[in-house]
Specification:
- The structure is a single chain.
- The protein is mostly beta strands.
- The protein has a single domain (about 25-170), classed as OB fold (Dihydrolipoamide Acetyltransferase, E2P), CATH 2.40.50.180.
- It contains 2 helices and 10 strands, in the order E-E-E-E-E-H-E-E-E-E-E-H.
- It has a 5-stranded mixed β-sheet with strand order 8-1-2-10-9. Strands 3-6-7-5-4 form a 5-stranded mixed β-sheet.
- The chain is globular and about 60 Å long.
Length: about 180
């Protein structure tokens, strides 16, 4: 008869040396295009959901900044939808040169406030060591994106964006 309270624990071992593997230091980041040359990265742990949008289901709101696309329905709740590329200083989705049949909303939640960051597509989930993150310095990135950048990773043409800074800027919407 075996006990469920066994003192044995599972440990991952390196098959070549039978030594315990070091703890995983890489984090999962969602990648999406900002421009032809650069991708944006958002920490996956801060993303609630990724959903396809239909333009006709977005209710425009008058007298809002142009980066605010409007309001959409998300799980029966009102969700503010923001053109992330325009917000951070890249070409807006409406002027990207191609008609987007169904853009993607990256739903984030910060301080119990949900927000949909709209992009043309998501690429992949990448593993990166954020301890290697190089902080944003003046001249490294365009001035408009600087408040939203956590940093960049060496050898990768991607920018790690700060979800908290994005949500802080947009916190007054709808109030």
């Amino acid at each position: 008869m075996t006990s469920l309270d066994s003192p044995l624990t599972l440990t991952t071992l390196d098959p070549l040396t039978l030594e315990p593997l070091p703890p995983e230091t890489r984090e999962r980041l969602l990648s999406f295009p900002l421009s032809k040359e650069e991708n944006g990265l958002l920490p996956l742990e801060q993303i609630t959901e990724i959903m396809r949008l239909n333009w006709v289901e977005i209710l425009p709101v008058p007298e809002m900044p142009s980066c605010i696309l409007g309001i959409g329905n998300w799980r029966g709740e009102m969700l503010w939808l923001v053109d992330l590329k325009e917000l951070v200083g890249y070409t807006p989705l409406s002027k990207s040169g191609k008609i987007l049949a169904s853009p993607v909303a990256i739903v984030i939640e910060v301080n119990h406030q949900s927000l949909g960051l709209v992009v043309e597509q998501v690429n992949d989930i990448e593993l990166h060591d954020l301890q290697r993150l190089q902080p944003a310095t003046a001249g490294t990135f365009p001035p408009k994106i600087m408040p939203f950048v956590l940093g960049s990773l060496p050898g990768v043409s991607s920018i790690v964006l700060d979800i908290t800074a994005i949500s802080r800027l947009l916190a007054g919407i709808g109030k």
